[in-house]
């Protein structure tokens, strides 16, 4: 299952018609309230609401995420390093609306060793994640092997490699057990390093599934 990450309001209509099975609304990048976005999204299309730190204060981020959940988001993506005072109210809102919590860890510089990765994953579940999402910078083949190895552990997960060498993990993830994988709407509109477009992903999957 491919989730297209939407970073601009003017991408939304095209993203809805792109053939994606899920949309991620990057509220920190779109800078629109959810009530301006959800009317354009069919109920049949699952939605992830995400609001990374930096653009808004934490109380503003929390309000946006809770509004997205109230409007029908199926998932909310939260940073595993967030304080419990930020997480608790959002997790309660997600539970009330029967949405699932994605607890995310990002490392834009490197991939930790296998034991550290396992600890990070366990921490994602302990902090209330229904799904653990780990995205790290891949700098070599050992990083790929360590990340792939996480699929042998219990729990639902999404494991992503950032950077050019990490692209393979975005492609093979669904075949290894990832709940979904991420793509950009088009080339040049990536929201993470190494992200492929939905067209590129679908073209690759056509070749794999045909063989």
Give structural notes.
- The protein has one domain: Alpha-Beta Barrel (TIM Barrel), CATH 3.20.20.70.
- About 40% of the residues lie in helices and about 20% in strands.
- Helix 3 (about 60-70) runs parallel beside helix 4.
- Helix 2 (about 25-30) links the parallel strand 2 (about 20-25) and strand 3.
- It is globular, with a radius of gyration of 16 Å.
- By secondary structure, the chain is α/β, with parallel strands linked by helices.
- An 8-stranded parallel β-sheet has the order 7-6-5-4-3-2-1-8.
Strand order of the largest sheet: 7-6-5-4-3-2-1-8
Mean pLDDT: 95
SSE ordering: EHEHEHEHEHEHEHEH
For the termini, the CA-CA separation is 19 Å
Q: Give the overall silhouette.
A: globular
Q: How many separate helices? A: 8
State the helical fraction: 25-40%
For the record, what is the CATH homologous superfamily label? Aldolase class I
Domain count, please report it: 1
CATH class: Alpha Beta
- Secondary-structure content class: alpha/beta
Strand content: 15-25%
Segments where pLDDT lies below 50 for 5+ residues?
none
| Named CATH topology | TIM Barrel
Sheet of most strands: 8 strands, parallel
E-strand count? 8
Computed Rg: 16 Å
Q: Which CATH architecture?
A: Alpha-Beta Barrel
Question: What are its keywords?
Answer:
211 residues; alpha/beta; TIM Barrel; 8 helices; 22% strand; globular
């Amino acid at each position: 299952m491919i989730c297209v990450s939407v970073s601009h309001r003017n991408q939304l209509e095209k993203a809805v018609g792109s053939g994606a099975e899920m949309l991620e609304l990057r509220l920190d990048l779109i800078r629109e309230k959810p009530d301006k976005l959800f009317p354009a999204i069919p109920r049949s299309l699952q939605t992830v609401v995400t609001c990374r730190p930096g653009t808004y204060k934490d109380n503003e981020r929390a309000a946006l995420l809770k509004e997205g959940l109230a409007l029908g988001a199926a998932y909310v993506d939260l940073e595993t390093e967030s304080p419990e005072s930020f997480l608790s109210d959002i997790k309660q809102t997600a539970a009330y609306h029967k949405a699932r919590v994605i607890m995310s860890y990002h490392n834009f510089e490197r991939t930790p060793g296998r034991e550290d990765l396992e600890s990070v994953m366990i921490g994602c579940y302990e902090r209330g994640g229904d799904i653990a999402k780990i995205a790290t910078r891949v700098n070599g083949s050992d990083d790929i092997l360590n990340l792939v190895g996480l699929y042998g552990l219990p729990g639902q997960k999404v494991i992503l490699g950032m950077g050019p060498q990490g692209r393979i993990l975005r492609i093979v993830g669904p075949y290894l057990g990832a709940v979904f994988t991420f793509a950009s709407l088009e080339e040049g509109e990536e929201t993470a390093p190494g992200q492929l477009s939905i067209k590129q992903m679908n073209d690759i999957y056509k070749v794999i599934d045909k063989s």
